[in-house]
Amino acid sequence: MSQSIDVSSDSANNGAWYCLFICWLIAATSTFGSLFFSEVMHIPPCVLCWYQRIPMYAMLVIFSVALFPLDRKVTRYALPLAVIGWLFAFYHLLIYSGVIPEGMQPCSAEVSCAKIDLELIGFITIPLMSVVAFSLMIGLLLMISKGFKK
């Protein structure tokens, strides 16, 4: 009696698992990086930073649970969080860039959203890192939901 093995299903699951693992790496790096900036470097988070941290921290837990065993339905929960985080990060980036006028900024004078506390290599700011992180996760989650179906 021969037993057939569905190779395409295995490769699809492997691809989805690796994408989810990369999402987990991004969320873990972002979570621990934000904690490092605030707790070690003593850079106080502004209101928009907190609004970005909320979905990022939640996604770290969701990705951790969805990896073992692989849960393809994770995109239903994580993708809306990633989009919400991306919207806050993009709005924060526009404030940093000076596109949003001061009257539309939600931050207080004590912890300003427009103040540039950290700039790596001359142009990499915290909101830019956040936009890139959320964008990568959105792309990977879309690949999981669309590109690796059985």
Core attributes:
150 residues; 4 helices; elongated; mainly alpha
Explained architecture:
By secondary structure, the chain is mainly α. Helix 1 packs antiparallel against helix 2 and helix 3 runs antiparallel to helix 4. The longest helix has 34 residues. The two termini are 25 Å apart.
Structural class assignment = mainly alpha
Proportion of residues in β-strands: under 5%
Q: State the helical fraction.
A: 55-70%
Shape, please?
elongated
Kindly provide the radius of gyration, computed on alpha-carbon positions and rounded to a whole number of angstroms: 18 Å
The helix-strand sequence is HHHH
Please summarize the sheet with the most strands. none
What is the distance, rounded to the nearest whole angstrom, between the alpha carbons of the first and last residues?
25 Å
Poorly predicted runs are none
Number of strands: 0
Q: Helical region count?
A: 4
